[in-house]
Each structure stands twice: as structure tokens, then as C-alpha cells.
Amino acid sequence: MSDYKTIKVEKGKNGWGGPLYLTPDDKKKYVISVTGGGIHPVAEKIAELSGATVVDAFKNPVEKEDTLVAVIDCGGTARCGTYPRLNIPTINVKVMSPSGPLSKFITEKIFASGVTVDDVYLTDGIEVISEKTEQEDETKEIKTKEDIKENDIPVSKNPFMRVIDAVGKAAGTFMNIMNQAGRDTIDTTLKNIIPFMAFVATLIGIINYTGIGDYIAKVLVPLSGNLTGLIIISIITALPFLSPMLAPGAVIGAVIGTLIGNEIAAGNLDLSIALPALFAINAQVGTDFIPVGLTLGEAKPETISVAAPSILFSRAITGPLAVVIAYFMSFLIQ
After folding, report:
1. What whole-number distance in Å separates Cα of residue 60 and Cα of residue 169?
2. What positions carry a catalytic annotation?
3. pTM of the model
4. Reduced 3-state DSSP string for the chain
5. Which among 66, 41, 38 has a CA at the least distance from the CA of 52?
């Protein structure tokens, strides 16, 4: 039996969640790093201290049943909630709080953000026992409440009243679903859409006030102002070894898109450039999510190991082709 040890992972400065207590065993012995640029130092330290095995999930996917913890670098959209949804402890090296469409799965018991190598260290068994006891007490309390609710439900023997009860329950369930959908919509709008709008507005303001846009535009306009330049941009952003590092947070696409949009609004670029430019700056989108999406779809590790590089290389071909197609289609929508 391997010499496994328990480690404690705390949230970093300005981070959220945790602490997480991780103890590998012969089944759950893999620390997966789902970050651009290979295995992250945080994942390496977790494996080093605990005795687990660290792997780059982009190259060597692991079954969720064998995963001890996932180390990610998500800005707060998809990956941050994907692994918690699978009940896999998740460590985000970026600072963030619960957000995204899967935010309801992100809890302090299973998630910690802003984590650095200094937030990972060995711990004794006392803290772990205390933590497990608290979790067991919470579970018992929840089950007790559920049992009480089930026992308190009156059972009507009258067929007519049973129909009334069924209609009432169905109406109540429908209203609850619609009400919850409304809450989720407002929550997503407040936590994701509005902050992104504020970011873009701030970016435009900085660009206009400082005049930095004029300097950057001088570099970008020769590329973004013609079909050849846009194809070059798409090739660069879709490079298999570069695209997973450009994709997180969609920052590159947002910055270049804002600049191109400003130039089109100012009349420096023709409107026909807008559509092909959209495809040119987004050739890398989603490339960091490939292993996560395949895992979420319960694909086998062998499938993930083949699919991830295949999709990355295909983007290098489909990216430029999309720009060319969009360029000619843009003449039909003017």
C-alpha cells in the first residue's frame, strides 16, 4: 500500500471557499491539472506532499472515479462548476467566487480559489476528523428533516381529494420551477453578463482616454483590415500549443474585438470586416474546455486523449476556413 498523506488546501489571498482536506488512496490517487501550459505548480505540490500522482488532463485524461482533486485556472464560467458538479474537489488558481451556469454546485466544502503553492501543506488527522464529524452531523440533520416532512404529509383516501392534491402539487411544482428559473436568470445576469459589460465599457473608456487604442490599432489594423491579415490572426490564435493558453477568460478575443469594433465605429475599417474578424479572434474559443466537456459527457480516457489534440489541430484548419467563408458571406448581409 502506498504511503499516502492528508493535506490541507486553503483559499488564497482574496480567494473563496475551503479549506479542503485531501487524502488519496489506491482508488482516488490522481491530481489532474486542467490548466493551459502543462502541469500547474499547485498540482505538483499537492501530489508531492500527499503521495498522489499528478497528470496533465489535456494529455492524459483520468476517470472521474479515480480523481482526487482537479486543479483549474478558470475565470469563472464553465470549468469552475464542471468538476464540483461531478462531486470532485476543485482548486482554482485564479481568484473568483461562485459564478457561471453551474455556480450552485460550487460550495466551500468542495471548492477553493486563489490558491497558490503556499496555501498547500500537510496537516494532522485531528482537523480531518473534526471536519468529517461536522459533515456527518449536517447530513443527519438534513435526513431527519426530510423524514419529518415525509411523515407529516397527510394521505387522503378520498379519490376526489387525491385528484385535487395531484393538481395542486403539479401546479406548485410548475410555479416552483418557473420561480427558480427566474432566480437563476437574475443570478446569471448579475454575476456574469453585467460584470462583463462593465469590463468592456471600462476597457473602451481606458482605450479612448489614454489613446493607447491608436497605437495598438496601428499594429492591428494592417492585419484586421484585410482578409489576409485576418487569416493570419486566426492561424496564430488557433495554434495547438497556444490556443489553450489564450482561451481562458476569453480575454484576448474581448480586447482585440473591442479594438476592431472601435475602428469600425470610427470608420477606419469597413463594416464587411466585422463578421470575418469575429471568427478570426475566436478561433481559440473553447479549446481549454475540451477535456472538461468530454469528461462531462462521460467519455472514456482513451477517447479524451485522442479527441483533445484532434480538435486542437482541427481548429488550425477550420479557423482560417471560417474566416474566408465569413468574409464572402459578409457581402450578403450588408
Report:
1. 48
2. 74
3. 0.57
4. CCCCCCEEECCCCCCCECCEEECCCCCCCEEEEECCCCCCHHHHHHHHHHCCEEEECCCCCCCHHHEEEEEECCCCCCHHHHHHHCCCCEEECCCCCCCCCCHHHCCCCCEEECCCHHHEEECCHHHHHHHHHHHHHHHHHHHHHHHHHHHHCCCCCCHHHHHHHHHHHHHHHHHHHHHHHHHHHHHHHHHHHHHHHHHHHHHHHHHHHHCHHHHHHHHHHHHHCCHHHHHHHHHHHCCCCCHHHHCHHHHHHHHHHHHHHHHHHCCCCCHHHHHHHHHHHCCCCCHHHHHHHHHHCCCCHHHHHHHHHHHHHHHHHHHHHHHHHHHHHHHHCC
5. 66
Residue pair 233/295 in contact (Cβ under 8 Å)? The answer is no
Residue closest to 222 by CA, chosen among 260, 266, 255, 265: 260
Task: Going from the first residue of the chain to its last (334 residues), give the mean pLDDT of each consecutive group of 10, the final group possibly shorter.
Answer: 82 88 90 84 92 87 88 77 89 84 84 92 64 54 50 57 77 78 78 72 72 61 73 84 70 74 77 83 80 74 81 88 88 69
Report the candidate in 290, 303, 246 with the shortest Cα–Cα distance to residue 34: 290
State the Cα angle at 134 between 132 and 135, rounded to 5°. 65
Q: What letter represents residue 120's amino acid?
A: V
